[in-house]
Amino acid sequence: MAGHRAQWKGFLKVGEVSCGVALYTAASTSDRIAFNTINTATGNRVNRVFVDSETEEPVPKENQVKGFELENGRYVLINPEEIAATVPESNKTLEIEAFISCGAVDDVYFDKPYYLTPDKTSGDAFALLRDGMKADKVAAIARTVLFRRMRTVLIRPHGKGLIATNLQYDYEVRSSQKAFETVPKIKIEGEMLDLAKHIISTKIGEFDPATFDDRYEEALADLVKAKLEGKSLPKRKKVEVSQPNDLLAALRESAGLSKKSEDKPKRTAVNANAGSGRQRAAQGAAAKSAASKAAPQRKAG
Q1: Which of 141, 178, 195, 211 is 20 to 30 A from 245, comparing alpha carbons?
Q2: Rounded Cα distance, 17 and 253, in Å
Q3: Does domain 8-29+87-172 have CATH number 2.40.290.10?
């Protein structure tokens, strides 16, 4: 990928077929608006300093080690060399252990996606694996050492290449049963269920990530712009939660079956006014640029 640096290079192997591959980050947060911590008295950036929890004295870097807490105030100290010795040895090979149906893995196990591409000499072998997986509509489970840890990776065909997604280990995924244990057992039926199904049917569409904006980033960009221009932001509107005794009326209004809804102008498509994610990113970048240009002026003043 031109302009991007590979995060990892190695081999993709199944049986006696192997090819050289590279992993590239598929998702990045580098374009998000970031803030620095500033000393309001001087206008200077604040540096992070580690201090002793008892003496409150700064601790020099050479005296800082990792520690595993046994109980309050008692730790097993682990030095960097001991940690490095526990890192599994890497043979730089994504060894495919099994092929499974594409929907066999619950996406709650998905961690971080990467683009998987062939090196210059492995195009044929790579295409063989990719097209074979496409034809059989399967994904691959592989394991290797990535970024100092043994990882389980789900590999799926994606356009001309492959997507490799790190999978969470089972112990890392919390039980949904525990999360949902307080959800009440309520059965919805009759008119309310029919209205809900009708409303859903009117909202059926397709996922286009370019039409969904990051509203938090947009709000941060607006905040930076307003601060530079000396303006105040509009107050956030309060969200009213539908109460059980008002739920049927709210459903009827949403379905256009009440007089109140007839008096309102018709809504446009779900994403018609959502804006472009790329446009929002451009606004964020503009806010960053404006803030960086204004920073020296504020400090000088």
Answers
A1: 178
A2: 60
A3: yes
Q: In sequence order, what are the beta bridge partners of 17?
A: 14
Q: How far is CA 275 from the centre of its chain?
A: 20
Sequence-distant (6+) residues with CB within 8 A of 226 are 232, 233
Strands 161-167 and 17-25: unpaired
CA-based nearest residue to 195, from 241, 249, 239: 249
Among all chains, which residue has been given the structure tokens 């526990």?
86
Residue matched to tokens 């009117």: 202
Domain ranges of the chain: 8-29+87-172, 191-300
Q: The tokens of 268 are what?
A: 């446009």
Q: Is the pLDDT of residue 200 over 60?
A: yes
Distance CA 23, CA 1 (A): 10
| Buried-state track 245-266, b at ≥16 Cβ within 10 A, e below 16 | eeeeeebbbbbeeeeeeeeeee
Q: What pLDDT digit, counting tens, does each position of 153-171 carry?
A: 999 999 999 999 999 989 8
